[in-house]
Amino acid sequence: MNSTLPYERINHEQAKAMMDTEKKYKIIDVRTKEEFELGHIKNAINIPNEEILFEDPYELSDKDEILMIYCRSGHRSLQASLKLHLLGYKNIYEFGGINTWPYEIVK
């Protein structure tokens, strides 16, 4: 882990490599539902940043599971990663925004 952040920041290539090799992880898109419906990374689940507050998100029951977080440009994913850390999640990987994602998205 980065010594100054409670989560790991990775680039798109590292994120894609994890998606291709890890067996158990969740990809979390923290954009709005409307943005998510316009296109998202395959197998991502939508948990808008604004909805991550004081309770564990329903979709995230395992605090040790690998969580891969992204948004549109990278700003909301940073906020969401910190909030998830404060809720007790331990394996958080933030990889920026879909607007520069060079791989396939689903619509």
TrEMBL record:
Q: Which domain of life is it from?
A: Bacteria
Q: Which PROSITE patterns match?
A: RHODANESE_3 (PS50206)
In terms of InterPro entries, this protein maps to: GlpE_sulfurtransferase, Rhodanese-like_dom, Rhodanese-like_dom_sf
Q: Where is the Rhodanese domain?
A: 21-107
> What SUPFAM superfamilies does the record point to?
Rhodanese/Cell cycle control phosphatase (SSF52821)
Q: What is this protein called?
A: Rhodanese-like domain-containing protein
